Amino acid sequence: MELSASYLGRLGPESAEALDALQKALRDPAPDVRSQAGVALLLLGKGGRASVVALLQDSDPGVRRSAITALGSSLDVPPDLVPSLIHCLREEVGDAQAYAAHALGRCGEAAADAAPELAEGVLSEDERLAGACLHAIAMIGPKARSAIPSVSRVLSEGTGDHLEAIARTLVRLGPDGVTALVEHLKSDDGRVRAAVARALELPPPDAIPILIELLGSERGDVSAQIACAITRWDETPAAAIPSLLRALDEAEGGEVRAGIILGLPRLGPRAAEAVPRLLEIAGDPAAADRSTALRALSQIAPKHPKAVELALKGIDDPDGWVSQESYTLLGRAGPVIVPTMIQWLREGTTEHRRIAARMLAMIDPLAVEALPTLLKAGSDPSLEVRRNSMEALGKIGPVANEAVPTLVRALSDDDSGVRDAASSALERIDAQALAEALPHRFIPEDIAKRHLDSLLGPLAGNPRAELDLLDVVLGDPDPVVRRAAARTLARRAPGDPDAMAMLVRAAGDDDYRVQQEALPGLGHLGEGAEEAAKVVALALHAEDMQTRYAASWALLRIGVGPDVSVPLLAPLLMDATSSASWPEDAIVELGAPAVPHVLPVLRAAEPNVRLAGIRVLGKIGEEAHDAIPSLCDLLHDPDAQVRVAAIGALVAVGSTSPHALDGLVAAVDDPDGTTRSMAIAALCDLGARRPEAVEALSRVISAGNPGGQDLFRLATLRCRVQDPVVAGSVLDASEDSDPRVRQFFIGWLRDIPAEVADVVPRLLLALKDPDASVRLAAARVFSDRCENAAVAALMEALRDTSAQVRGAVAEALGGLGEQSVDAVPALRDVLLKDSDKDVRRSAFLALRAIVAR
Description:
- The chain is mainly α.
- It has 55 helices and no strands.
- The protein is 66% helix and 0% strand.
């Protein structure tokens, strides 16, 4: 009875018909039954919650604990239970009190009357109860503010590992809680102060006004901590900034001062009032926060003359952080720094010239006044200065046309970064000059390090210049450089005779990597590239496998036809030392014309070679029907792998000739287990498509073959029968005199579509079959097919003598959902009375599925 009550509770709010039985169970003399019935009623929804009050007042403490525990774990606790839960919080002991507190917390503001009891619980020595009460107070919110003294007391004691949670609870209690929390910033305990500071990191909007008010009255590090919290809020009013600056001066800790300073930029334009104070800090050599102030200034006022002046001095500061923040501020200052940067670039140290060139390169557009100095910097001994100067010249734009000679010379610079910057600058100033210069000034190192397309980009729209550059690159002695040219040509050659000729040249390169890049390009040329066939045919015998693969792919696409390509490709299958699939893939694409050339491969001495031929025929599929006799002969091959592969190929070819079926039936007795399994799977696969294979399968099963695991494999294979003739054969086989045959083919009925054949009558008969395994198979099929017409028969089958059958029938009814609603009484009887626990569980799941839908 106890287990049944538990199952009924899990059915959820919709099984109202279970209420009467559970209400009676509440009066059961056994406490365990009353307890489970009460929990079940709680889970059922509103209809059962009215009885929970009685449970909370039950004479048995175990029943009360069960009800409290269930409420404490529930996400939805009705407010009308608050008085009873308050009583439990006062009177119960141990875990029951903690669960009662959890339940009160889930009531939210409706549990405000529980604040005194929860406040008392916060002070308990029982950590679990104290934590549950603290959490409940936080969930209730400002209406539980009467608990502030207790929560504040716990925080002041500084005990436990949850000081931050306690502090955040005070924040949740509204302005009064925030005021109490701020007082703890004066604590002598560093852990308490740290917990308060973390709780104030993200103050809620309603706490900001009280924090601003406290900021005006507090002093010292307390006001600094408050200010640090306020600056994290994006909507702080400008009126608070004077108090923030005062707090900044009074802050004792470096981290707090830094927090206030770094928070000021978040205030946006309102932070302008803080700029004078930040300038003072940044300009004070004795201030520890100079770098922090510079960082804030770089975000608030990077163009302020005084800020720029400080940053120009700070670049050389021995403090690395000050120097770094000065650099950042100058990068945001814009054109105002141009005169100073020109002077640095002309007369400064190496470091100043490097910084000046970088800053000028960051200004876009750049004033033409920097042009003479940048031209001179193009020959600076520092590569960084040269690189940034080239980039800065590009920022000036077309008006800097006198820089073209300097930029063209820079295309031959020793540093690739300088060359890249010069190329980009020329593209912006004079693209035609770049197109004329690049073919004669390319550096092989650039191509070896990166994609050639990045060098060709500036030549877009000038095909002749592109080909000139590619021709030069293709003649480079470095094979890596030639490979880049071949890769690019492979994408650009179609439709261009000059590019195609260059690509043929690359395909005959001495380096196999260059060939690998060029050969796919020849394949893309399609018909009309016959002149490349000779080069491709030679590449078929290259030492490198990838080159041979690329050549085979190209050969199929250059229009030479199968009469030429097949004789060239088929002999490659005879290489017994190669495990590569590239010749197979190429031959498969040729289809039926390749079959006569593959058949000799099946007679090779090496098993690996025979396997390659079998794989090709299997991939060709039904077009390889002329190979069926040869594949059948291989079912007797001495090598087991060859026999397995031959079975797979026969299935792919789709053979149901008597010769092939007899061979597959015989293979079921093969001494090799893999071969047997493959033969079984092949017969199943063919059986779903050919009636002859259905008869062959019946013979195998009736002969007692296969057995053990192989028979299990047969029973679990799903075969989708789509042909009416085949479906008729399957239905006939499902009425065979041998129960093993009936069981097997009953399983196949699950996948026969209704439009192909009506299998329901046969399944209904199978539910009454004298053999239990056949009945079980039928019940499982109904579970998958969800046939509405079977409800009555399935209800009758719930009384089957086999527990497995009853369980499968229950699952089938559950699969029908609400369409099985008539079966609910029968399923309830099974749930309450069946002797088998697995059957009862299946009935429970079925009831839940029916009710849920």
